[in-house]
Amino acid sequence: MYRWARRNDKEIRHPMLELRSLTRRYGSIVALDNLSLSVSPGQMYGFVGTNGAGKTTAMRIVLGVLSADSGEVLWNGEVLDAESRREFGYMPEERGLYPKMAILDHLVYMARLHGMSKYDATKASSELLDALGLAERSEDRIEALSLGNQQRVQLATALVHRPPVLVLDEPFSGLDPMGVDMMASVLRRRADEGASVIFSSHQLELVERLCDAVGIIRDGRLVAGGTVEELRSRGGSQVEIEVDARPGWAASVARSTGSTTVREQGDSAVFALPTGTDDQLLLRAAQAAGPVRRFAPVQATLAELFRDVVTEEPAAEAAEEVPA
Fold first, then answer.
1. Under CATH, what is the fold of the domain 14-231?
2. Cα–Cα distance, 37 to 102 (Å, whole number)
3. Tell me: the pLDDT tens digits for 22-45?
C-alpha cells in the first residue's frame, strides 16, 4: 500500500497535503493570492475555477515545477521536499507521453523510474491498463491511440507507482462518457485505498458527483470551500414546483413572491426564496397559476453556486472580510 512518512521515528498515520498562504505573481499579475487549502488522505478534492483563476499555478507549485513568492506546501505537517515530491503522481493538462513507445513498455519504464522492480512494474501496469479498458492495446504505440485513450495512458502514468498523492490537471478533458466512468472508478478506488486526490475540472456536475470536498478559486483566491453538501447548503432555500399552467406562470410567481427563478423547463421551475420567506407564500402563488403537481424543496447545484461566487462583486467580497 502507501508508505506513510515518519517524524522523530514515529509513524504518521494521517498524512495531509496542505497549501498555506501561497502567493505567486507574474509581474503585475497576481496568479495566487494567499491561497490556502488542505486535502486529507482518502479524499477526492475538486479544484474548480474559471480559466486563469490560478488552478494550474497552484498545482505546479505543489509539484515543484514553479516556486511560490510566499507561503508553503506541507506534507505530513512538514514543508514538502523534493524527496517526497518524487512519490507524488502528477497528470499535467498537456500530454507528456513517448509516442513511439508501446503502451505497456511506457508504463513499465515510468514505474521503474520510481524504483519499482520490473516484475512489480509490469504487474501494476497491466492491472491499470485492464482497469482503464486498454489491456487489449498494451502492445500498440501511443501515437496510434485516440486522444481520449492517450488521456487514459497519461492517467495510468501518474498512477502506476501507487503514489500517496495524486495531482491531476483536467484529467477528464476529451473523454467520452465511458472513459469518464472508467477513470472516475479508478480514482475513487485509489482514494478509498488512502491516496489524496486533487484534480481540476470544468465539468462541475462530474465534480459534484465524484468529490468529497471542493474548492472554488477566483483571481487566485479560494472564495468557497468545503464538502459538497456544505457548499450546496450555501445556495439557500430552493423549491421545485410543477404546475399545469400557461407559459409565463413561473415569471408571474417569482414577481409576486419576490423569489428568483433559478431554472425552468416545461411545466417545472426551481425558485430561490429570499431569506426568511415562507415557502407557503410560494405555494399559494403557484396554486393561483394552476393545479400544482409537484412542490418539493431542493438543494442548489454546485454549478449554481459556482456561478454565484465567481460573479460576486469583489467589493462585496472585501466588505465581508472587514472585522466587525
1. Rossmann fold (3.40.50)
2. 38
3. 999 999 999 999 999 999 999 999
